[in-house]
Design brief:
By secondary structure, the chain is mostly helical. The chain has helices at residues 10-14, 18-52, 59-89, 107-121, 125-134, 138-141, 145-158.
Length: 161
């Protein structure tokens, strides 16, 4: 997905936590829907003007300008709200997980970090697995790698440690 609702660098995006990234995604999807709606409304207006035989009268340009102004206003409000949220939501690094949540790390480094935390924090494989299952941050923090670490901890339990 192309993110053009805000102009952040890759480093800035990497410093956002999961909740913040979800808000960026939500705002971008809303902007994309507004763009689609704008194009649909322009096509409908053009069709109505052509059917009425007045497309070349200058009304088309005026209608497009009004539709574009409405779109720009809505997108700017969305953008301002997102920037306000990002500015004041703060960076959450300790989410009660016991490990540091750092979205600037690669997914492989995140997996290593989480795995090492659980291995050092819990000696008993059953306890470790249950604690990992209760971790509400790990699924979004580890992305698709969550399932493989889940399986790794499960195999550890299944084989008796």
């Amino acid at each position: 997905m192309v993110i053009d609702i805000i102009t952040y660098t890759e480093e800035q995006f990497a410093k956002l936590n999961g909740e913040q990234l979800n808000e960026v995604k939500k705002a971008q999807l809303t902007k994309n829907r507004l763009s689609t709606k704008l194009e649909r409304e322009k096509r409908a207006a053009k069709y109505r003007l052509v059917e009425a035989g007045i497309f070349r009268s200058g009304i088309w340009e005026k209608l497009c300008e009004e539709l574009q102004n409405t779109y720009d206003s809505e997108v700017e409000g969305l953008r301002e709200g997102l920037l306000f949220y990002l500015q004041y939501s703060g960076q959450k690094t300790d989410m009660g997980t016991g490990y540091t949540v750092d979205y600037s790390l690669s997914v492989a480094d995140r997996v290593t970090l989480v795995k090492e935390y659980y291995l050092s924090a819990y000696d008993d494989p059953n306890e470790r697995f249950e604690a990992f299952k209760r971790d509400g941050v790990a699924p979004s923090y580890l992305c698709e790698a969550y399932s493989s670490l889940y399986q790794w901890f499960w195999v550890d339990v299944d084989q008796g440690g």
